[in-house]
Design brief:
Elements: H1 3-10, E1 12-15, E2 23-26, H2 28-31, H3 34-48, E3 55-59, H4 63-74, E4 78-83, E5 91-97, E6 102-108, E7 117-125, H5 129-140, E8 144-153, H6 159-163, E9 170-175
Parallel strand pairs: 3-4, 3-7, 7-8, 8-9
Antiparallel strand pairs: 1-2, 4-6, 5-6
Helix pairs in contact: 3-4
Bound molecules: adenosine monophosphate (AMP).
């Protein structure tokens, strides 16, 4: 079975969580399968290794789970991108609109060096709003967007189109 099918088999889909109409892709069963986790990191690493990555930026919180092992496999720094108020040192922030209200994400200052090729990683791509905000913050800090990587892409929600302006390198292990 290929890696996408193995991931699909372990994912649990929960209807109407956290609100009606959302088909939530629960990756916690995947985390209980160490051989699959190792192979997922290897597959992400294989796809990203052509991109000349200088750092991986992981999006809170599920983007940390595979983001750090991916950065370790690529032998580059891992940078955490968090919700407002979570990071203890000096931060840079970016605010963006949600369906209702807005959200702010933060990163520690001076973690990205000028012209670094940055890979943005999260567990899942839906509309692309979160990854797009991450890309804006990375650009504000002087980084280039080398690509995006996800375990899962919900392609019918149009996330790829939203991200294409930043980079056409959009990796997902399993697309729906
Ligand atoms: P978006 O900004 O619309 O691309 O949403 C992506 C973010 O929301 C990621 O951090 C995902 O973890 C989370 N997310 C959105 N939709 C789902 C879903 N159907 N299942 C699991 N996580 C989701």
């Amino acid at each position: 079975m290929n890696i996408g099918d193995r991931l699909n088999k372990e994912l649990r889909t929960i209807a109407d969580f956290p609100k009606p109409g959302i088909m939530f892709k629960d990756i916690t069963p995947v985390l209980e399968n160490p051989a699959l986790c190792r192979d997922l990191v290897e597959a992400l690493c294989d796809s990203a290794s052509k991109l000349n990555i200088d750092a991986v930026v992981g999006i809170e919180s599920r983007g940390f789970l595979f983001g750090l092992p991916l950065a370790m496999a690529l032998n580059v720094p891992f940078i955490t991108l968090r919700k407002k108020g979570k990071l203890p040192y000096k931060t840079v922030s970016y605010s963006y609109d949600l369906e209702y209200g807005s959200a702010t994400i933060e990163m520690h200052q001076n973690t990205i060096q000028n012209n670094w090729n940055v890979l943005i990683h999260d567990d899942l791509l839906a509309t692309g709003g979160t990854a797009k905000a991450a890309a804006e913050l990375v650009k504000m800090e002087g980084g280039n967007i080398a690509g995006f990587s996800f375990l899962i892409g919900l392609d019918f929600l149009g996330g790829k189109e939203a991200l294409r302006a930043y980079s056409t390198n959009i990796i997902s292990i399993k697309e729906y």
